[in-house]
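Notes to self, thioredoxin-dependent peroxiredoxin:
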Amino acid sequence: MNTEKKSYQENLKDLRDNLGNMLPKEALAVFDNDAESLQENHNSILKLQEGQKAPDFSLTNANDKTVRLSELLKKGKVVLTFYRGSWCPYCNLQLSHYQKSLEEIHDLGAELVAISPQTPDESLNVKEKNELNFEVLSDNGNIVARQYTTVFKNADAPVNIMTELGFDYDAHYSDDSRELPIPAVFIIEKDSTVSFAKSLGGDYRNRVETSEIINHLENGSK
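result:
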């Protein structure tokens, strides 16, 4: 892997510095307390374990076209990542981080797919904002997410702070459930077997490093 690329954790330090300058201290504290609470309250995140078969699904992409997992698997492996939304700076950081290694992922015979409960319009927004060249799918109601990772209702405190800061959280979604998936990454083999499944817990500030994905794909292809 290109050693010049920063890790997610290195980029996270820069993001935290930026957020500290951009957001009121009280607002950042609310978000941080929310992340820490989620970490404490959710211990067993993954609904799908390594060695199990990945449930097939069909979801709408950013261009309102249907994408089916089984069709993608005919071409190669699939790296599946669940994220919260385009309003989440940590999600944008993660997806942008993964984009930088997309060529390596493709070279190792895999396709990258990101899923959130956002509307297709917001999927398009996140693609354009982060210049993503992989599929970003809309899982309205977290139907697919529930089969892979833990889904929870976003707390009032962070949503209220977002509203105060001028962000319309509910406008990103087709329903008013305010449910979100806990970020997780899965690598699915061509026969639909899950060979890698990982979440760093409820604290959404932490994400799976691209290096882990690349290393797994490299080892799996030997």
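- DSSP finds nine helices and nine strands in the chain.
- The chain has a mean pLDDT of 92.
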